[in-house]
Amino acid sequence: MSDEEIIFIDESDNDDYAPVIDNMMYISEISSNSTFFQGYFPDSMITTKGTTISFSLPISYLPIAMNAVYGFIDSEILLNIDISLNPTEIWKLPAVIHNVSNPLLGSNFIGMPLVKNAIKTFFSKSYRPMNEYKCMNMVFIKGGLCDPQKLQDLLRQGFREEDAEKALINSKNNVLKAIDLLKIGKSDRSQVPFHYSEFPLGYLILDIIEAFYNLGDHCCICGEPLQTQCIKPTACAKSMCKFSLTEIGIGNSLYQELRRDPMAASFLISIFASSYNTKFCTPNPPPDLVPHVSNFLNRLPKVSSMISNTSSDSDLQRLLGQNGYAILKWIILCNPNQFIYIPDQLKLPEFKSCHQFYALTSSPVQEIQFQKLKRQHGSMYLWHGSLGDRWHSIFHNGLKNYSGQPQQAHGAALGPGIYFAPEASTSWGYSPQLSRAYVNSELGDNYSIISLCEVAKVSSLKCHGWAYTLGDEKACIVRYLFVGSSFNHDIVRSPPSKVPTLENILHYYSNK
Q1: Cβ distance 387 to 432 under 8 Å?
Q2: Strands (E), 319-404
Q3: CA 426 to chain centre
Q4: Tens digits of per-residue pLDDT, 106-154?
Q5: Contact 386, 430 (CB under 8 A)
Q6: What is the rounded CA–CA span in Å between residue 300 and residue 291?
Q7: Residue among 121, 127, 141 at smallest CA distance from 208
């Protein structure tokens, strides 16, 4: 099958597509929209040829966290789009989609079903523009001036100048709000600067970008709202949506995810292997795959080896077999979190002997809730350790207050709550070494895991000297993971001298 997809009408059966050159109304309408396009979307390009319009959208329309999670960080272009319009009634009759693709990921990019559905909905007589768009302040720049000193502050933090300037203007030169906008897309509501009747194409672009913003709390296949917030795209409970995501792989590429971060993939496999066959393996793989898991873990090659010997999902399936491929896809693509391996150049210098991972374990809504608590109460870094068979569950279900419940790992000597420590050695003591359950793990033969969490200083955070307890699950987020052998460091008395930010890490990989 070719990449061209005709989803509404077949232009070979529609004579209305022929006399375009003589249709002056059509030419005038497209010319007007092209002029508006250049004014409102200066970072994009548009061309027209006959009935076909072609345009590109930059990744700067998405916040950095989205670009990291959805795998767009290797390209400056988010999407290239080619659509043929019906000249009889350009914006209200079905159009022909020739191409919607990412330069590196092709047509199987994350969010593809929602983007194509947005285009289909737009070209219909029932279409109505939304009153508000979450993506507004990442796409357009309001009127106003940027504070030069605050701009330099954002540049020192690693943001691109044009993005930082737009964020500051749209945030009325509030640095914290500008950072929220650039990192997670949070911003105050604002109006679209033009009416639909003036510039319909602009609303099409807003609908396309908004589809990515909806991935955190909508089914990534059908677009229905989800009960919970997620970082990685998630399917709703409908069997067809789950089948499309995990079995067919619509909007997902296992090969691309392995290639994006081999060490992060090895980490996910390793923590699953450590929890498998324990009561803490929550969730378990699908029942039809369970009989094959033990053999899979014993025979699965190193992730680096899989990447070097394949170049696509089809190659992976041939290498691993149908069951092995399905198990690996479930482990990697069904985990709701995102982990990014920190290279040596950016590691927290005090702990360079360990593998370090930057963790995106909160949804946009959870991050906003935490940032609100942080602004009200301040925050601090604290260590958290746990048994090796618990991390698979932690990263699927979150850090929970399991005091007095069957999931509790240790006694609650200091009362109920999530336990943290100022001393790394205390947390390592609750994290015994793991044997290599995934035989070819790139993490080493024996290793332990602890996390560095950012904790808001809410009233339920209690200091007991050697430990802290926290009652509010919303007041803590795992920021970094340390995998390897133990070290000691009092994180309260000596905060890390240089904490790598997501922007630091993404710019490092982008430059490479």
Answers
A1: yes
A2: 338-341, 355-360, 379-385
A3: 32
A4: 888 889 999 999 999 999 999 999 988 999 999 988 888 999 999 999 9
A5: yes
A6: 15
A7: 121
Residue 382's contacts (CB-CB under 8 Å, 6 or more residues apart) are 420, 421, 422, 452, 453, 455, 468, 491, 492
Which among 50, 52, 47, 72 has a CA at the least distance from the CA of 62?
A: 72
- Cα separation values, 79 from 54, 61, 444, Å: 11, 11, 39
pTM of the model: 0.73
For the domain with range 338-511, which CATH number is right: 3.90.228.10, 3.20.20.140, 3.40.50.150, 3.60.150.10? 3.90.228.10
- With CA atoms as reference, report the closest residue to 78 among 135, 12, 155: 135
> Using an 8 Å Cβ cutoff, are 393 and 275 in contact?
yes
511 pLDDT higher than 70: no
DSSP characters for 120-141?
A: HHHSSTT----S--TTHHHH--
What CA–CA distance (Å, rounded) separates 110 from 122? 20
CATH number of 141-184: 1.10.8.10
| Per-position b or e across 466-485, b if 16+ CB within 10 A of its CB | ebbbbbbeebbbbbbbbbbe
Task: Kindly list the strands in the beta sheet with 379-385, ordered across the sheet, starting from the edge strand earlier in the chain.
Answer: 338-341, 355-360, 476-484, 448-456, 379-385
What is the phi/psi pair of residue 445, to 5°? -75, -50
Angle between the N-to-C axes of helices 148-156 and 175-184, in degrees from 0 to 180, rounded to the nearest 10: 40
**pLDDT at position 1:** 37
